[in-house]
Design a protein that fits this description.
Number of helices of chain B: 4
Oligomer: heterodimer
Largest interface: A-B, 52 and 39 residues
Distance between the termini of chain A: 50 Å
Shape of chain A: globular
Helix content of chain A: 55-70%
Strand content of chain A: under 5%
Order of helices and strands of chain B: HHEEHEEEEEEHEEE
Number of strands of chain B: 11
Radius of gyration of chain B: 24 Å
Helix content of chain B: 10-25%
Number of helices of chain A: 7
Strand content of chain B: 25-35%
Structural class of chain B: alpha+beta
Structural class of chain A: mainly alpha
Largest sheet of chain B: 7 strands, antiparallel
């Protein structure tokens, strides 16, 4: 169902992006923030803002990803949730996450965590991470390198 | 990371529609700088550029510079003079030449807040290789495992950490230096050889800094970036 908001021509495109990327974006945001509520809020807000901007956005997919992670980062900062917190009660009701993985992710800097999630969960190559985050490709590589080393250390993986 | 595939992602399309249709004006605004801030930023930029031009053109001379991080466009030796030594790190691509590292840390923006060493990366080439220089309080006994080699003109040890990482540990006049070379899977032999050549070129030079020396090394091409 297309709704009339802003420039409606892009609604179908955006809905396609949502159908294709919506769940993965939410999971990536969840991995990044360790907060299901925050992930839902950032993802919905990013899509809503994209819907409002209509055809003014050339690359909807990249824009939504970039906006969602910026919103999530802002929310995390505001809520001071960079601390390594356990998964809140009720979030992991019907699935189980590797606690060590969650703790290791939370042990990274926000930027390291962002590129690690996009690279290893979303399978984005460096150039794509750069497009989706607005980071310089060199900075992406740097954060990836540092994040990988840190993850290896935190997970006790010498292999 | 695939365990996150099990996380039950909600269907939030209706929420998207609700937010977009209810009050577009309530959507969180994008960041926008205030005009006054933009004006101040523009003035500061103008001042900075003017100062840089004045210093660069020699109109203003800074007396405390005993060496310039970019003394010339040509690092080659001419007439028997020693080659110019460029400071490290330098942002942006670094041209071929001799560089120095005196223990300065990688910029937090690139390496995270816990950065404790120098960082270089062939990001203007394949981007597959990086080298980290880290000062450690002392070289622990566990760091003695490995093959004995000469590093920067001093006795040190070398070991392969894993398929992607190699490590050199050396004690230079009481200061432990760890040099880590990390290569992405599939890194070309050419890129690896280039990184090894940088480490092989390392030597020390007495210097009045915290360590009493600085580390010199040579870049043979312009593919390297630092942080």
């Amino acid at each position: 169902v297309a709704i009339v908001v802003g420039q409606v021509d892009s609604t179908t495109d955006l809905e396609t992006v949502y159908r294709e990327d919506g769940a993965r974006l939410w999971r990536a945001l969840f991995a990044y923030s360790n907060d299901a509520e925050l992930a839902s809020d950032a993802a919905a807000e990013a899509f809503a803002q994209a819907l409002g901007r209509g055809t003014a956005i050339r690359d909807i997919r990249s824009w939504v990803w970039r906006a969602a992670f910026r919103l999530a980062a802002g929310d995390l900062k505001n809520r001071s949730r960079y601390a390594r917190v356990p998964i809140p009660e009720g979030v992991t009701l019907d699935f189980h996450l590797d606690d060590e993985l969650v703790a290791a992710l939370q042990g990274l800097t926000p930027q390291q965590r962002l590129v690690i999630v996009l690279h290893y969960y979303v399978d984005c190559p460096v150039r794509e991470i750069s497009r989706r985050t607005g980071m310089n490709p060199l900075a992406v590589r740097s954060h990836l390198s540092r994040g990988r080393q840190r993850m290896r250390l935190l997970l006790g993986d010498d292999s | 990371m695939r365990t996150y595939d099990q996380a039950p992602a909600p269907d939030y399309w209706s929420e998207v529609q609700l937010r977009a249709s209810s009050a577009p004006g309530d959507a969180r605004p994008e960041r926008s700088a205030r005009p006054a801030l933009l004006l101040v930023a523009a003035l500061l930029l103008l001042l900075t550029i003017s100062a840089a031009v004045a210093v660069g053109s020699g109109v203003v001379e800074l007396p405390w510079f005993d060496e310039s991080p970019t003394p010339s466009t040509e690092p080659s030796v001419r007439g028997g003079w020693p080659p110019a030594v460029w400071g490290w790190p330098s942002t942006g691509p670094n041209r071929p030449g001799v560089y120095s590292w005196d223990g300065s840390n990688c910029a937090p923006a690139y390496c995270g807040v816990s950065a404790t060493g120098g960082f270089m990366h062939n990001g203007y080439g394949s981007g597959d290789v990086d080298i980290i220089l880290e000062v450690v309080p002392h070289v622990a006994s566990s760091d003695r495992d490995g093959t004995t080699v000469t590093v920067a003109g001093h006795d040190g040890i070398y070991r392969r950490v894993d398929g992607q990482q190699e490590e050199w540990v050396v004690n230079i006049e009481g200061t432990g230096i760890v040099i880590r070379l990390t290569a992405e899977p599939g890194t070309s032999q050419l890129d690896l050889a280039d990184a090894h050549a940088i480490i092989d070129s390392m030597r020390t030079e007495p210097r009045a800094n915290n360590f009493g020396f600085r580390l010199l090394f040579t870049l043979t091409n312009g593919e390297w970036d630092s942080g």
